[in-house]
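User: Structure with S-adenosylmethionine, tokens only please.
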Amino acid sequence: MAVRFDVITLFPELFAPFQSVGVTRRAFESRQVDVRLWPLRDHAEGVYRRVDDRPFGGGPGMVMLVEPLVRCLAAIRASQSADGAGKLPVLLFSPAGKPLTQQRVQQLAAAPGAVLLCGRYEGIDQRFIDAHVDEEVSMGDYVLSGGELPALTLIDAVTRLQPGVLHDAASHEQDSFSDGLLDCPHYSRPEVLPASAVGVEGGADLPVPPVLMSGHHAQIARWRREQQLAITARRRPELIEAARARGELSKQDEHFLSKLAL
Ligand code: SAM
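Assistant:
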């Protein structure tokens, strides 16, 4: 089943290059992930096709107007209904939203889709948000110029979870956050790297951790798990607490963590 995203944006051209590169390209070409762009200015009226105006009460910046958004959303609803897609929820990108997590991405990857609303300027007239927005999504505690990069981020994160998009299906299962922890380090050829190859003259050679060359799958899995635990405990201790609260840490994990110098 395809995941459909109807994207409301003032800058549809930002989405074009993204859909033609990388592992996710096939998912867009096959419409496994069906991205439909809705340029907001197409739904504005008047000679200037105005989509924004000054804020009541004064202050800097401009506010996105309700009427073009309402007309655009009505067109999207008509299209969804004609395609039998049902009424997909409206997600607004906003610094005031709930931070996006891999868990939410996994839910969206298994859902039929959403309307993605990309704000610009100071944001959107609150009356549209109150009437039509189901969920506000934040990319983090910083401010971007628009919701287009957040929309691309969400679409990319959802797309790489679709069956067949990644060459190795197990790949995203070992990504950071999939099991609640950060990812372990990865190494590839050569087995031993001369220090000079990384620009350190006279330094010691850099071998990959010997366990990775042992061929002993259980030991490799344990080493990777311990690397994950160590990195997560040092960088994001709250994720360890959350994993513990979910009962996802084994006795072996707890023993390793108790000996770990933080
Ligand atoms: N006045 C808004 C505020 O302080 O919260 C910032 C508006 S910002 C310049 C314009 C648009 O960019 C927002 O409406 C939103 O769609 C998007 N945006 C900016 N930062 C974001 C973030 N951290 N997460 C999600 N969307 C963001």
